[in-house]
Amino acid sequence: MSKIIKCTILDLSTLLRVTYTGITVNQIRSAHNVRPPRIKYPLWHLQRERAKDDQQLTEDNRAFVKEAVHDKFGMPAVIHGISTYEVRSPLKEDSVERKNVEWHPKLKRTGLIARKLGNYPMWSDNGKSMLATLFQVIDNHVIKYIPPGEFDPPRKPYSCPKHKKELGCLLVGAESADPQYYTKQYCGLFYREGMMPKKILGRFLISPEAALQPGTPLLASHFRPGDFIDIRGKTIDRGFQGVMKRHGFHGLPATHGVTKSHRRGGNIGHGGEKGRVFPGTKMPGHMGNRYRIHKGAEILRINHKYNVIWVKGVASPGETNSIVYLHDTILPLRKHKITPPFPTSKEVEDDQLIDSYKEHMYKFTDPTITFEEEK
Amino acid sequence: MLLRSLKLHIIQCGFAPVVLQVSRTCSNMPLSDTHQSPDNAVSGKQVKSERKLVVPSNSRFIYPEFLPDPKMEWRNSLREKLERLDMIQRRKHIDIPEFYVGSILAVTSSNQHAPNKATRFVGICIQRLGCGLRANITLRNVIKHVGTEIKYQLYDPTIQKIEVLRLEKRLDDELLYLRDAPNEYSTFDENMEAEYLPEGTPVPVNTTLVKLKPRPWRARWERKNMKGLADLELEERFYKRAEELATPWEKYDLMKQYRRTIPEEEQKEIFAEVCSELHEVEVMRKKLKRKKVFVKPTRSS
Amino acid sequence: MLSTICAARKFSTSAVTNHIMKLTRLRVVDNSKIGKQAMAEGKPPRCIHIYNKKGIGTIGDKILVAIKGEKVKAIIVGCVKEQKANIPRFDSNNIVLIDDNGTPLGTRINVPIPIMLRTILKEKTFSKGADYTKLLAIASNYV
Q1: pTM of the prediction?
Q2: What is the ipTM of this complex?
Q3: pLDDT tens for residues A132-144?
Q4: CATH says A108-153+165-238+286-357 is which class?
Q5: Do B134 and A367 touch (CB under 8 A)?
Q6: Which residues pair with C73 in a beta bridge?
Q7: How distant is the Cα of A361 from the closest Cα of chain B, in angstroms?
């Protein structure tokens, strides 16, 4: 505090000196009490939606605008089961095999943006059934790479100032959309790279070795069956809930003279010196609608035609049809043992390869499971 | 026919103008509607033989599990499609025949615990639940005077064979009341021979009325409006209470029905997608069957 | 008011789970003398302890029953409660009485028993502990 005051006094004196040496005497007030903004928003935090104005275009004009959009960006097409546009990024071609860096476990690859499709059962080849959750990788493309020096995250952890200084930032977009519906500055973010605007953006912290050219498509084959992933998504919004639902309290007795408080939490504090409510006390409040990470989920199967990933278990956050982010797991014992597709997988035109399964999973194309008799 | 019957039904109730917009099918409609009249069923078969791509009108009764769960929050078109693809893949390896609640089935499944690694269970189908790959049935039989039930998942890869020993329907969609009935209603011979039903004949309806054991029961059957139950012989107060709790207006609640069922247009779309492949599988199976029939005598001789 | 009404009635209004827990009445299905007598008198045995951590018994669990004033151990060979796919469910909670060595008291089991018991009981048998596999030998029918 004293330092700041000193600084300001010094500043003032210098300013004053300047003004005295000048001809006119203007009182200049220093802005010492205006603090810099705490959060510097990243460059992709832009006004997105445009105010809708129909402009009263005629049918012909509307068709012309559509044609112009298609000329500029590409024709609408169905790629991997999603209606999107044919991306014609000039950088796309030699993007993946640009560098020949050997993968090692300390390198951090990019993640994917996916949509949760729901769940259905899968069977292992000993007849055991398990529920799997389906995620579709929805038309992901690399938008931008910001190297570690330039990348300045808006919120830095207080504890370790060096944190993530070695990591760059990869901006990934999902689901192409008509540029007519977005603002100019938002479209400019993509247009510079020759891309359609994307509906969903995601930021992934990666090692500089894993950087990718803008326009590179990211596919489900980025992961392999048997890998473990972390799934980050927004949990189901349940609104304002009591302690029984929110924290699993038992409530109070139904009888024995209890009135009007069968589902309440009971006591929340003590008297005397501790005569206050401790921070973090579990109380009623808003439940859900916050980001949660399901760590170490195993991939059972991947469909390359529709870019769908089957993950074991039903614990991943979010409703059906919600957006989730898939990362390589951070759990130390479940990290990649063998080299994964690095920095990402290449697009392979192979009509035969539709499904790839984890080992010891029952493939639906396989015949019925039979057990062999012992002895 | 279904649509017509629904319309007539509603016209009688005085809601005629609404009908054209909200006329849709319903999977758990009363049996008088679901039961196909013989001429209609035959005409359906004829159409099928002439033009293969025409979807048979009774698909939703033969393949009910191809219709997805109607709960809006859980629906996703791509997942449903992938699920159907997997189901057809599985159907290439196992014949899942046409059957209904009340039919007598025999399921052979591989079992690690059995000495010959396979078990067979014969019983009456008392419940059919689930959509897609989760579709499951419950079979019930009385073995050595003890009622035994096993639940089978239809698309479980350990199931080797599903045979229909007697194809028939009962008056209800669920026969859970057989648990409270005397044993003779659910006793079936394990070595029962399959009964032959000529192709094209409508599925017979078994109209036996089940006489329950005296209370206590597993459910209050007088409140469930079951058609296949004989007189329950209860006191007046039970029926009175059942009448109080009944919700007879629900069958006119079109919104409720809409939420509970898959719209007819969507059903058509789904079956049009699945039909040709299912037909192929069926034809392949018929060929194999004929081959088997032909081969058998040569083997024995 | 509501709570007093709830307290007044002596039955549970929650859905029936059909768990085998302490004080559950069971049915002896072997032909041991004590079991036969108890069933014939209309005094079926009562579960007084379950030898697992959950306190709820399923197929293959060892329990302690009170039968005709005696404490006898038994193995559960069939449950009423809902089971997973491919596992049979019965209309009665069936038990077979055993002694401390795992030898059944009777010589014959008159009802079908689940086939998965063959594996479960073999896994529970150790070389110097109780031998439960004798139970499998007296079974007449598997499901």
Answers
A1: 0.83
A2: 0.86
A3: 999 999 999 999 9
A4: mainly beta
A5: no
A6: C64, C98
A7: 11
